[in-house]
Amino acid sequence: MKLPILETINLGHRFANGRWGLKHIDLRIDEGQFVVIAGANGSGKTTLLRHFNGLLLPTSGRVLVDGIEVSKDLLRARKIVQMVFQDTESQIVGETVRDEVAFGPENLGLPRDKIKALVDKTLEQTGLKSLSDTSPHLLSGGEKRRLTIAGVLAMKPRVVVLDEPFSNLDYPGVKMVLEQLLCLHRRKMTIVLCTHELEKVVAYAQRLVVLSKGEIVADGQPDKVIGSVERYGIHPPCSLKCKGCLEPWLS
Amino acid sequence: MAELSIFTYRPRPVWIVDCDPRIKLAALAGLSICSLGAGWTALALVTVVTSILWLRLVPSLRVLWNQTKYFIFLLALVVLARGLLTPGQVLLELGPLDLTAEGLAGGGYIAWRLLVIVWWSIILTATTAAAQIRSAVAWFLRPVPLVNEKVVATMIGLLVRFIPVILQQVRETMAAQQARAVAASSNPFRRAFKLILPVVRRVFLSADRLVWAMEARCFTPDRPFYHLDRGPADWLLASGAVVLCAALLLS
Amino acid sequence: MVHSSLMAALIAVGAFISIPIGPVPIVMQNLFVLLAGLLLGGGWAAASVGVYLLAGACGLPVFAGGTGGLGRLLGPTGGYLFGFLAAAYLVGKVSERACGRPLIELGGLVAGSMVIYLFGVPWLKLVTGMDWAKSIAVGMIPFLIGDAVKILAAYGVARTLRPIIALQATPGGIDKAG
Q1: Between chains, do C156 and B208 touch, taking CB under 8 Å as contact?
Q2: Strands, E, within chain B: which ranges?
Q3: Cβ distance A191 to A30 under 8 Å?
Q4: Is the pLDDT assigned to residue C175 strictly greater than 50?
Q5: Who among B120, B163, B189 is closest to C69 (CB)?
């Protein structure tokens, strides 16, 4: 059997104040999968995501990225797993769009011409080329989110982890981001996305994991799992109630 | 930075934009220091040269006035104070004080010098990207002991990066407080406290999120600098600056 | 380091925030200088003011009014800017030693505020050619009441924020020192 790209074994995390944020998380994610992690506020989604690239280290259990434990080689884990944060405002480091995309590759110490080529290609792919010299603060919400995704893609990751990528976005913004994610998925990128708004994304996912109070309470194909989500404080998509099936959100 | 200054760096089709930022900085420093000892004729010469450069750059003096009016107000006070306090030929009697020609001339001379220096700074700011200035500063700091130039460069970058975020938060907090009739409270201590506390707290929290995000993209202070290289335009600028400096010193 | 740059940015922004009270609006800039000392300690507080001044001197638009540059540092109010550097260091050093004793910290804040004038007033005198009495009347007296308010506010804010800043867990890496 192929090695999963992300794996957690009996992962537990306890905060400094003694509360357990995560308990007994066993999760295997294969390369190329599109996984949605759902949960109400405070269910431990963000905490879980931060273990995938070693921003947090487990109190108990293990986290493996491509077969090697995250804590053994943080840099390697962070190169493979890239994260898009919920708050775009505090993720953007660069003074211009181009600087922002170049930030990651510069940290990796790549040669200058290679960085330039990489940045150009990424800007092209994400449709931000015409905005290269703009200050990120002048972009719209959807453009900012796309910029953070571009900044992450320039690192050439194998897994992209997104924390609530649709928060604070208007309809065109959500559409742009969603289309971009689907495009990545078609190119066999592994995508892990956590959200409490299932409606927008669940129809495209291959797998739905539901977290509640720091534990996995459901895990499986979206249409099998979706029936139980309301119990855990997540609003099920309207199409499920009206038509009894999951409908793609982009039409 | 749009909030701080309407007039910031934009790529412009003028040769000075492409000059090496190190030379630009050195020219600025050299000219500033030399002009402190300059006489009237040299100041006039430099003013003419600077005006020509300015009009090539931005065909408008209005922008210049908008940029410097606050500073000009300060300088006007200096001229007035000098004029009233220096003994000499009396032009106008104002109660116990006399406005003297010598005083006005002396004040005007000081003000003119400072104004020219500020003007050059504006030209530098207008023609140089923040990242370039940062790299040039780091380059100059390299031989200075006890100062880690890479840390300084990173700090300047962060400083520029934080300013719009903080301004935004101040504006939001002030608006929220005005909506709850903060003006009704007449205790100045309370008002200062209630404004600063939430702003500083929010700003520190967003700084922490920024640290997370930088970590996730493998941040290291050991980043490559903006590409610095010299071309013919640089020698033109350097020799021009040297000539002007000499003129300033000799007059 | 990040916190220090953050305070530098706050100092820059402080020049634009004012609370209108009575005829003279209170500008928040020196409040942030004092706050930098209280929250970061001497070395990093001085670093944050230093970075602010350096960025300004090199032409980045961080000084009040939007224009930067050496001219600003050499201009009539330049002395105050240098005074900030000394004040941040002094307040920081005092509060490092004070171990939370309020009277000593407040004493440090008062001394810090005075240090700003120690640099600012002679500079103003030099540039404008006014005599001592006038320089003090123009460059110091009108601000004293505001300073008292700012000292109290800085102290209050620092008391409230210290535990929060100390608690924040940062992941292994760049922010160890400040």
Answers
A1: no
A2: 90-94, 97-100
A3: no
A4: no
A5: B120
